[in-house]
Amino acid sequence: MIHLSKKAVSYVFIILGALGVLDFLFLMFLRAAMNFGIIFPCIVAIPLLIVGIQLRKDKFTFFRIRNTAYKRIIVIIFILVLASFILVEILILSAIRTDSNVRVDYVIILGAGLKGDQMTLTFRNRMDKGIEFLRENPEVRVIVSGGKGLGETIPEAEAMSKYLIKNGIDASRIIKEEKSTSTMENFKFSRELIQQQGENEKNEIMIVTSDFHMFRAKMIGRRNRFITYGLPSRTWWGILPNSCIREYFAVIKSFFVDR
């Protein structure tokens, strides 16, 4: 039984490790922007591959640990982490739905990173989704939220405003929030801008962001006293797995820190 479990665990670790490395190589082939989120699956994958191979060679020492209490603690931690990962991924995927037939006071489009002053595909997908809603609801104003980050020559909100105007959205409908560098700040600073409009009671918002990001965006929006609805933009399947894995760690961080 122990030999069988070791063999099964080794295969699981090797497969997960191989998938992580392949994910990284695939994104590098696509010339994705280098950041920690891109590298992280590979960082995790390499130890998994090593452990899996060591298990296959019967050189991994975990199954030789005689202190059953110590071994049990390790197993419990592993199960808890795995269970939390599965739960969070289910929440992320279940939030990928459009809230239709709702009336809102504002649309908030969240930035997604620029290369210089150019939008990425993910960013443009968010913008195009927001434009669809704004054309269908000409009475609603829009807050474009995003500051200037590493490798960006202009604030994301400035690029978003130009994109909206270029696509027929009147400049008078656009409010620029140019200070935020995180999802928490997106909503915090957007709330401040709404209050500056003298409309403190305006709480219902339509969030436009990527599908994998919608669960966390709504959670943080509610923490900033908004009634939140979602309009998710689709992420290309080639980068969706990496995005969902990265989002797990972002959700855990936001759950405990972003308050």
What is this structure's SSE topology?
Elements: H1 2-29, H2 36-56, H3 68-94, E1 106-110, E2 114-115, E3 118-119, H4 121-136, E4 141-145, H5 156-166, E5 174-177, H6 183-196, E6 204-210, H7 214-223, E7 227-233, H8 240-257
Parallel strand pairs: 1-4, 1-6, 4-5, 6-7
Antiparallel strand pairs: 2-3
Protein name: DUF218 domain-containing protein
Domain DUF218: 105-249
Keywords: Membrane, Transmembrane, Transmembrane helix
Descriptive overview:
Keywords: Membrane, Transmembrane, Transmembrane helix. This is DUF218 domain-containing protein. InterPro entries: Cell_Envelope_Assoc, DUF218, Rossmann-like_a/b/a_fold. The chain has 8 helices and 7 strands, in the order αααβββαβαβαβαβα. With 259 residues, the protein is α/β, with parallel strands linked by helices. It folds into 2 domains: 64 residues; 152 residues, HUPs (Rossmann fold). The strands form 2 sheets. It has a 5-stranded parallel sheet with strand order 5-4-1-6-7. Strands 2-3 form a two-stranded antiparallel sheet. Helix 7 links the parallel strand 6 and strand 7. Helix 2 packs across helix 8 and helix 6 crosses helix 7. It is elongated and about 70 Å long.
What can be said about this structure in brief?
Keywords: Membrane, Transmembrane, Transmembrane helix. The protein is an alpha/beta fold.
Summary tags:
259 residues; alpha/beta; Rossmann fold; 2 domains; two-stranded antiparallel ribbon; 8 helices; elongated; Cell_Envelope_Assoc; Rossmann-like_a/b/a_fold; DUF218 domain-containing protein; DUF218
